[in-house]
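Researcher: Quick test of sequence recovery. Tokens follow.
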């Protein structure tokens, strides 16, 4: 398939359709963001809107962090979270061990 054809197809997709395709087609690393539970349990931040106020991050980013554990923030977002909330990345990003089948 030529680049022009791929560009045309991608350009015609909505951002939600493109997000879905990318999410479903890429291998997902078993890493989760657990910032929501840390906010609720340790930082007295009850919802995504309060996270937005405390960090200065955008509403969409905060909603994604809050509602999608598979969402891994990019470097600039993580830096802002660390700076504004006094956390280290290892506190809100965790590796999920998957049990392997024994044959």
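Model:
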């Amino acid at each position: 398939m030529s680049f022009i054809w791929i560009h045309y197809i991608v350009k015609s997709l909505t951002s939600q359709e493109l997000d879905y395709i990318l999410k479903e087609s890429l291998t997902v690393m078993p890493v989760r963001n657990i910032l929501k539970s840390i906010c609720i349990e340790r930082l007295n931040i009850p919802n995504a809107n309060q996270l937005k106020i405390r960090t200065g991050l955008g509403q969409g980013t905060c909603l994604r962090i809050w509602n999608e554990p598979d969402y891994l923030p990019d470097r600039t977002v993580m830096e802002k979270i660390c700076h504004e909330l006094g956390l280290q990345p290892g506190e809100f990003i965790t590796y999920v061990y998957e049990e392997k089948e024994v044959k």
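The first strand starts at residue 31 and ends at 33.
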